[in-house]
Amino acid sequence: MEGTRESGRLIFGSKAGAFCFQIENFLLNLCVTKYNLKNIIAVRNLVLFYLKHPDAKASIETWLAITKNASWQKPSDVVASFPDADPVKNNRVVFNITRNKYRLVAQISYERQWVFIKFIGTHAAYDKIDASTIEQF
Asked: Is 126 helix (H, G, I), strand (E, B) or coil?
């Protein structure tokens, strides 16, 4: 992987037409090739979250892999990919992470195929927020 190394910061680079993300010595197993259409905004925050909550890593990586390759046109398409997902107002969807121990809220631009991470936290922290308006990141 090419790129610069800065302590405590997200490092990204490209290799053979792919972009990879790394924080410190942790390489996110997500290399997005130039052919993937989905833009996921704030992946860094997901990586930082699973560094604090290692039990969430596998679920987050699975969510990323499915999401980056999805072609969602409407909320029901998201539910087809993630049956436990709950669409809410403002084109947002709540995802269960690590068997509902954590919650991830994303806002989806179906037209542009962009996914904006708005919140990730424990289920208890999620219970204190409004998923349709939260702007954690």
From this structure: helix
Is residue 84 within 8 Å of 96, Cβ to Cβ?
yes
**Token match 């962009």: residue?**
114
Contacts of 124 (CB under 8 A, 6+ apart): none
Over the stretch 4-22, which tens digit does the pLDDT of each residue have?
Answer: 444 444 444 434 444 455 5
pTM of this structure? 0.74
Q: For residues 135 and 130, what is the distance between their CA atoms, to the nearest angstrom?
A: 10
For the segment(s) 37-126, the CATH number from 2.60.40, 1.20.1250, 3.30.460, 3.30.2310 is: 3.30.2310
Q: What are phi and psi of 106, to 5 degrees?
A: -130, 145
